[in-house]
Structures are given as C-alpha cells and as structure tokens.
Amino acid sequence: MEWLVSLFGAGLVMVSLRDLFHTLWHPTRHGGLSRLVMTALWRLARRFRGRRRVVGLVGPLAMVTVVGMWAGTVVIGWAVVYWPHMPESFAFSPGSEAAQEPALLDSLYLSLVTVATLGLGDIAPGEGWLRLISPLEALVGFALLTATVSWVLEIYPALTRRRVLAIRLALLRDADPTPGQLDSTAGALLLDSLATEVVRVRIDFTQYAEAYYFHDGDDNSSLAAIVGYAAVLAEHGQAASLAEVRLAGDLLAGALKDLSTILDQRFLHTGGSPAEVFAEYATDHGRGVTQP
C-alpha cells in the first residue's frame, strides 16, 4: 500500500512535467492543463463589467496561475511520495522537533525545502532510493524556475511582433494609399513585407498559443481591431495590373487565410470565412472591426 501511494505521488509529478513540456517545448505547444486554465480565466474575465481593464490582466495572471499550478503539483506529488515512509525512512537533526509533527506536514515541508533547493538539512532521507530521488526533486525545481524565466522571455517578443504589425497596419490605414499607389513596385514590396509579418504572427499563435490571451490595449496596437484592413490591401493587390503586385496580393491573402485558420481552429471555433473569423477575433478581444 505504501508503494501505491508513492507511485500516485510520482504520477502527479509526471502530469505536471508533461504539461510543462507540452506548453513550453513541444512543437505544437498543446499544453493540456495550462491551456484549460488560460481559457477559463479568459472566459471568466469576459463576464465582468469594465471588461477591457479586467481582460488586460488575464495574460500575466494566467501565466502566474499556471506556474503556481506546476509548482504546487510538483510539491504535493513529491510530498505524497515521501509521506508513507515518514518518519522511519528519514534522519532528523539533533534537537529537531520535526519528527513529532504529523507525517504529512513533514513530507510537505521536506518537499518545499527540496524543490526550492534550500537544503536546510534538518530532515534528510535515510534509505538509498530516497537519497536518489530527493536530489532529483531539486533538479526539477531548478528546471521549473528556468522554464518560467524562459517562458516570459519567449512570450513578450511574440507580443511585440503582433503589436508592431497592428501599428503598421494602422499607419497604412491613416495614410490611405490608393489602388494606383499600390499598383507599383513599391506596392508589391509593401504587400510582400506585410505577408511576411502576418506569417510570423501566425507562427507565434502556433508556438505561443498563450499569447492569444494577452490583451493588446485600446490604441492602434490591437491586431484584433485592424487585421481586417490587411484583407482590404490584399484585395487591392490582387486587382492590380502589375503581375508582381498581384503575386504579392495573393501572398498576403494566403497568409491572412492561414492566420484565420489557426485562430479558428485553436481559439474561436466559428467554422466561418476569414472575414467572419477576424470579426469574431475582434469581438473576443472587446474590439470592433476597424473599417477602412
């Protein structure tokens, strides 16, 4: 029975590590538990009044919640591993009153100290197999800290790329280039560069799905509000007389369609056309679609 309890604790640890791996390092970035937490917080925030202010906190709060979930699951899992063998399989420092505490409390304390790599030493594993897995928990704690820092450093460049594209589209909308101005070599280069940026954002939504749950604010940095204007530019390009402009227009239209497919498959689930998906994207982020 003791070994079954320890195996259950090991299973909790593996569930947490699997979710961490799939969230941060798996090519498809399909974290199970983390994705559920982020989606639940996003939907909950949409129900509040003053929604934009609340939604703006969802992304950072969701990341903190997910990291706390990982850490808590690891700590509890390892405590359950220790629990059936406490205190007889552990050595206590002279004068320590830890052995007089409930076994579960001592197990949680040891797990917290170990995963935080504090190494206080007042409780130490005595049996051989426990002496091997206890340092392993410290390594997992260090990996968790490193993964958290890496996650933050990865997500904010993705948000920057998305907001740069939004601001660029807003500037183009304000400049209001005519179809004749786009029907030129410069217009072809412009549409081609926009297609490249749209593809980058599409990849970001694939590899950093949690970026979707970050609100872009109420100014021109909101891609949800302005992405429809890119479709207007693509249409102008496709109707141009120069072949190179038509090609660039086709590239931009294809990139936008691909982006809408990713948004719909992973977040919105409308099953509609790209225009309908982008309209739902704007609504989901509390923004109306910007008209050209």
From TrEMBL:
It holds the Pfam family Ion_trans_2. SUPFAM superfamilies: Voltage-gated potassium channels. Residues 84-153 form the Potassium channel domain. The chain crosses the membrane at residues 57-83, 138-159. The keyword Transmembrane applies. It comes from the Bacteria. Keywords: Membrane, Transmembrane, Transmembrane helix. The keyword Ribonucleoprotein does not apply. This is Ion transport 2 domain protein. It comes from Streptomyces caeruleatus. The lineage of its organism: Bacteria, Bacillati, Actinomycetota, Actinomycetes, Kitasatosporales.
